[in-house]
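Entry for the shared binder. Reason: the reviewer on the internal report wants the predicted structure included alongside the sequence.
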Amino acid sequence: MKNVALIITLLFYILFSLPVWGNRSEEVETALRELQYTIGLSDDYDRGKTKEIDALKSKLNHSRSYDTGYFLTSRLIEEYEAYLCDSALYYVNKNIVNARTRGDKPGEIRVLLTKCDILGRAGLFMEALDLLNTIDPESLDGDLKQNYYSTAY
Protein backbone atom coordinates (compact mmCIF):
# COMPACT_ATOMS: atom_id res chain seq x y z
CA MET A 1 0.00 0.00 0.00
CA LYS A 2 2.92 2.29 0.82
CA ASN A 3 4.40 1.58 -2.63
CA VAL A 4 1.13 2.43 -4.35
CA ALA A 5 0.96 5.78 -2.57
CA LEU A 6 4.57 6.51 -3.51
CA ILE A 7 4.02 5.60 -7.15
CA ILE A 8 0.85 7.68 -7.35
CA THR A 9 2.60 10.65 -5.74
CA LEU A 10 5.52 10.38 -8.13
CA LEU A 11 3.25 10.08 -11.14
CA PHE A 12 1.24 13.13 -10.07
CA TYR A 13 4.49 15.04 -9.63
CA ILE A 14 5.67 14.02 -13.08
CA LEU A 15 2.27 14.73 -14.57
CA PHE A 16 2.00 18.24 -13.19
CA SER A 17 5.63 19.16 -13.73
CA LEU A 18 5.51 18.38 -17.45
CA PRO A 19 4.49 21.20 -19.78
CA VAL A 20 1.21 20.45 -21.50
CA TRP A 21 2.01 22.21 -24.77
CA GLY A 22 3.68 20.94 -27.93
CA ASN A 23 5.00 17.41 -28.15
CA ARG A 24 4.91 17.03 -24.32
CA SER A 25 1.20 16.12 -24.45
CA GLU A 26 2.22 12.58 -25.44
CA GLU A 27 4.30 12.36 -22.26
CA VAL A 28 1.32 13.54 -20.23
CA GLU A 29 -0.86 10.89 -21.84
CA THR A 30 1.75 8.24 -21.09
CA ALA A 31 1.94 9.38 -17.45
CA LEU A 32 -1.86 9.30 -17.18
CA ARG A 33 -2.00 5.76 -18.59
CA GLU A 34 0.70 4.65 -16.14
CA LEU A 35 -1.17 6.27 -13.26
CA GLN A 36 -4.44 4.61 -14.27
CA TYR A 37 -2.69 1.24 -14.59
CA THR A 38 -1.09 1.58 -11.14
CA ILE A 39 -4.38 2.57 -9.52
CA GLY A 40 -5.95 -0.46 -11.19
CA LEU A 41 -3.40 -2.68 -9.42
CA SER A 42 -4.35 -1.46 -5.94
CA ASP A 43 -6.61 -4.49 -5.37
CA ASP A 44 -3.69 -6.77 -6.26
CA TYR A 45 -1.47 -4.93 -3.78
CA ASP A 46 -4.16 -5.25 -1.09
CA ARG A 47 -4.57 -8.98 -1.75
CA GLY A 48 -0.82 -9.50 -1.55
CA LYS A 49 -0.60 -7.58 1.72
CA THR A 50 -3.55 -9.50 3.18
CA LYS A 51 -2.00 -12.81 2.12
CA GLU A 52 1.30 -11.89 3.74
CA ILE A 53 -0.44 -10.81 6.96
CA ASP A 54 -2.54 -13.99 7.05
CA ALA A 55 0.60 -16.12 6.66
CA LEU A 56 2.26 -14.31 9.57
CA LYS A 57 -0.87 -14.74 11.71
CA SER A 58 -0.94 -18.45 10.94
CA LYS A 59 2.71 -18.84 11.92
CA LEU A 60 2.06 -16.85 15.10
CA ASN A 61 -0.87 -19.09 16.05
CA HIS A 62 1.38 -22.14 15.73
CA SER A 63 4.46 -20.68 17.44
CA ARG A 64 5.43 -22.14 20.78
CA SER A 65 8.45 -20.11 21.83
CA TYR A 66 8.50 -16.59 23.20
CA ASP A 67 11.23 -15.46 20.82
CA THR A 68 9.37 -16.71 17.75
CA GLY A 69 6.10 -15.22 18.94
CA TYR A 70 7.74 -11.89 19.70
CA PHE A 71 9.45 -11.83 16.30
CA LEU A 72 6.26 -12.74 14.39
CA THR A 73 4.21 -10.20 16.33
CA SER A 74 6.82 -7.54 15.55
CA ARG A 75 6.61 -8.46 11.84
CA LEU A 76 2.80 -8.12 12.00
CA ILE A 77 3.22 -4.68 13.54
CA GLU A 78 5.52 -3.67 10.67
CA GLU A 79 3.07 -4.97 8.08
CA TYR A 80 0.10 -3.24 9.67
CA GLU A 81 1.81 0.11 10.36
CA ALA A 82 1.34 1.39 6.83
CA TYR A 83 -1.79 -0.65 6.21
CA LEU A 84 -4.14 -0.58 9.19
CA CYS A 85 -3.09 1.44 12.22
CA ASP A 86 -5.70 -0.13 14.55
CA SER A 87 -4.43 -3.62 13.85
CA ALA A 88 -0.83 -2.51 14.35
CA LEU A 89 -1.78 -1.18 17.79
CA TYR A 90 -3.52 -4.45 18.63
CA TYR A 91 -0.32 -6.39 17.98
CA VAL A 92 1.81 -3.76 19.73
CA ASN A 93 -0.31 -4.17 22.86
CA LYS A 94 -0.04 -7.94 22.54
CA ASN A 95 3.76 -7.72 22.37
CA ILE A 96 3.84 -5.37 25.37
CA VAL A 97 1.92 -7.93 27.44
CA ASN A 98 4.18 -10.75 26.20
CA ALA A 99 7.35 -8.81 27.01
CA ARG A 100 6.08 -7.89 30.49
CA THR A 101 5.03 -11.47 31.17
CA ARG A 102 8.52 -12.69 30.27
CA GLY A 103 10.25 -9.88 32.13
CA ASP A 104 11.88 -8.74 28.87
CA LYS A 105 12.42 -5.05 29.74
CA PRO A 106 14.38 -4.14 26.57
CA GLY A 107 11.72 -5.87 24.45
CA GLU A 108 9.00 -3.98 26.30
CA ILE A 109 10.75 -0.63 25.78
CA ARG A 110 11.29 -1.40 22.09
CA VAL A 111 7.58 -2.11 21.62
CA LEU A 112 6.55 0.95 23.68
CA LEU A 113 8.68 3.10 21.38
CA THR A 114 7.04 1.48 18.36
CA LYS A 115 3.66 2.29 19.89
CA CYS A 116 4.72 5.93 20.37
CA ASP A 117 5.72 6.08 16.71
CA ILE A 118 2.41 4.61 15.52
CA LEU A 119 0.38 6.92 17.78
CA GLY A 120 2.30 9.93 16.48
CA ARG A 121 1.73 8.96 12.85
CA ALA A 122 -1.96 8.51 13.62
CA GLY A 123 -2.09 12.08 14.92
CA LEU A 124 -2.42 11.04 18.57
CA PHE A 125 0.47 13.23 19.67
CA MET A 126 -0.56 13.69 23.30
CA GLU A 127 -0.99 9.95 23.81
CA ALA A 128 2.38 9.33 22.19
CA LEU A 129 4.04 11.97 24.36
CA ASP A 130 2.39 10.66 27.55
CA LEU A 131 3.63 7.16 26.77
CA LEU A 132 7.10 8.42 25.88
CA ASN A 133 7.27 10.24 29.21
CA THR A 134 6.85 6.92 31.04
CA ILE A 135 10.26 5.82 29.72
CA ASP A 136 13.43 6.99 31.47
CA PRO A 137 16.00 7.59 28.71
CA GLU A 138 18.86 7.46 31.23
CA SER A 139 18.03 3.82 31.98
CA LEU A 140 18.45 2.86 28.32
CA ASP A 141 21.60 1.82 26.56
CA GLY A 142 22.81 1.55 22.99
CA ASP A 143 20.16 1.09 20.34
CA LEU A 144 17.27 1.63 22.74
CA LYS A 145 18.57 5.06 23.74
CA GLN A 146 19.06 5.99 20.09
CA ASN A 147 15.58 4.69 19.26
CA TYR A 148 14.13 6.68 22.18
CA TYR A 149 15.61 9.97 20.99
CA SER A 150 14.73 9.37 17.34
CA THR A 151 11.14 8.70 18.43
CA ALA A 152 11.07 11.70 20.76
CA TYR A 153 12.40 14.13 18.16
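Summary line for the report: The helical segments are 2-17, 25-40, 42-62, 66-81, 85-102, 105-121, 125-132, 142-152.
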